[in-house]
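Final report, results section. Input specification for complex C-07:
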Amino acid sequence: AQSVTQLDSQVPVFEEAPVELRCNYSSSVSVYLFWYVQYPNQGLQLLLKYLSGSTLVKSINGFEAEFNKSQTSFHLRKPSVHISDTAEYFCAVKVTGGFKTIFGAGTRLFVKA
Amino acid sequence: EAGVTQFPSHSVIEKGQTVTLRCDPISGHDNLYWYRRVMGKEIKFLLHFVKESKQDESGMPNNRFLAERTGGTYSTLKVQPAELEDSGVYFCASSQDWAGGSEAFFGQGTRLTVV
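Structure output:
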């Protein structure tokens, strides 16, 4: 069975500071990896995903995540955050060829002015 | 193009009552999923439809939950009778195919509170 651990439930950070949201997963088979974001009063949106190829994947709004197979991690980073990045971020995995998405418990990112 | 739509956005019911949640997927998406998030915990898979057929309902908590997808379009999730532990946010998602890398599009969720 697969599982996802998000190591921080809340991350407060000042605007323009860097941030890292940590994610570790457990799986005995190959998986795809995702980060979803939920802004206040909105649904979940896909932020970025790793399927294969380059282990570093990037979103259009400056986030990036690196797949580290040896450490079974998929940490999310941004070099300089904005107030508008305040949201809840979910790391998720899906077995290659499967359909069920397994989510972590989420990390609330608070960006302060 | 309209996204995944869920109704209602909020529902407060008393223990023992019945509630029906509705999800309208993106047009043309054969795959429809229900998930639930109990406060502060992870989002958990409930079940998966391919068109009108239940592909996997292994995540359904118990027989008080009934999901249907008549005609392979919208889906309903009925809780009868509701219990306090059923409170949470119920998410619906849809995708075009069920290959692992395809993106699932999520609705805003229905926040259910059982009192």
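The radius of gyration of chain A is 13 Å. Chain A touches chain B at residues 4, 9, 31-32, 36, 41-46, 49, 51, 90, 94-106 (CB under 8 Å). This concludes the modelling results for the funded period.
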